[in-house]
Amino acid sequence: MPRATIRDVARAAGVSVSTVSRVFTHPELFRDETRLKVHTAAGQLNYSPNRNAASLTTGRTANIGLVVPNLANPLFPEMIKAAQHGAREHGLAALLADSDDSAADEEKLVHALAKDVDGLILFSSLLTDEQIASVDSLRPLVFVNRHVPGHRSVLVDAPHAMSLLTQYLANLGHTAATYYPGPDNSWVAHDRLAALRKAASTTGLDLTIAPMGPASYESGSAVADELVRQPLPTAVLCFNDQMAMGVVARLLQLGVRIPEQTSVTGWGGTKVGAYSTPALTTIAAPLADLGSAAVAELLLAQQDDPGADPAPVTLEATLQARATTGRARD
């Protein structure tokens, strides 16, 4: 059976060939009714546009790039899924790459993907300022969980979130807490630390800051081994859910009762945190909304004038109080 052509789709949809072509390359120019006709006809005929040919005539690939530091981190799949869905709604394909927590690899991926995409979304980017300067003219860039002046970004309101957390702990009678702040090369780690310092000062929570370092399940387990060699703080706050779950699991193995002897909190709101035992108290970021907003910002970034400096899109997190937190021990 011969492969369907763009003319076949146009005939089935009752529109012109040029309309079919432009629905796939510039869907935002058409009404929902027209887009639906074209996509329905294309689906029935099993037709897909030749992206290489389209890019030669329009200068656009109809692809976007998504770069994450670590796909194994449960924080990212929900954001990625929402971004992919948002891309499809605009007739775009999303190409996904993992930088393996390496700024050097992230830079290489941006250079490689730039040849095949119209713009890139960088999630929790580890690029240095110098590396960003080296790639920012390749394609429009949007940063998630990082603010970069001169670029569109999508952030979580860390000051509001940390205020929720410190007030919650204070209401449970906690007067002190130890915070494990995440890696030093992470912009968002420093952003959260600054927000927590300010919130703790306002709430009156005596805050002990551990050295910056890895924020994985394994590093959380190592943190637990350190904690039991000294007087336990009544509350342990972790940079992310992965680390917090590592702390909880290891403390339980070592015979520490949670939350009776110490409370533990994370950040992220990943589903795995809700399913763990005991269920993890966390600051829940709006993960799907972050991914969707990033795609919307990328579409806008493609229209920005050179030198534009748009304000970040800032979304609010919520506090999900679960079984790893309780009243401070006497």
From TrEMBL:
InterPro entries listed in its UniProt record: HTH_LacI, LacI/GalR-like_sensor, Lambda_DNA-bd_dom_sf, Peripla_BP_I
Domain HTH lacI-type: 4-58
Superkingdom: Bacteria
A GO molecular function held by the record: DNA binding
Signal peptide: none
Keywords, in A-Z order: DNA-binding, Transcription, Transcription regulation
Pfam families per the UniProt record, alphabetical: LacI, Peripla_BP_3
Protein's name according to its UniProt entry: LacI family DNA-binding transcriptional regulator
Organism whose genome encodes this protein: Kutzneria chonburiensis
